[in-house]
Amino acid sequence: MEKKIRTLIKDSMINKDKVALTTYKSVLENAQKLAKDKKEDVNDSYIITSIKKEIKQLEDLLSYCKDGTDKYAETKRKIDIATSLLPQMTSEDEILDYLTSNKVEKDMGLCMRVLKVKFKDTLDGKMASQVVKKYINS
């Protein structure tokens, strides 16, 4: 994933796309900081964490921007760019199928732990929580 982002940085420099360039650089810099803090090399896990953090920050910024302004459009585009970097997230059906086929005990904490181990970075915690609640109540 790091190579992909570095390639995207080069492409956005060639195309003179400043919005994409700053987004890609920010993601890579944050991933490098996370890896450096743990004294490890940058890996996909750090990059995905960095992308999610970047998206959250941009969404917070978006809530303060007025709709229709240049800053709003730029922030919205940055969110789209960062979101496109994320791998395909696990769907509700996949989560429910996994829980039912493995007959996981109907306990919220246990289900969430099992899902986090199984799906790691492709799991959306909020969505998984809603699916687990449905599973427990069924």
TrEMBL record:
Highest taxon of source: Bacteria
Family matches, as InterPro entries: Asn/Gln_tRNA_amidoTrase-B-like, YqeY/Aim41, YqeY/Aim41_N
GO MF annotation terms: carbon-nitrogen ligase activity, with glutamine as amido-N-donor
Protein's name according to its UniProt entry: GatB/YqeY domain-containing protein
Source organism: Agathobacter rectalis
Organism lineage: Bacteria, Bacillati, Bacillota, Clostridia, Lachnospirales
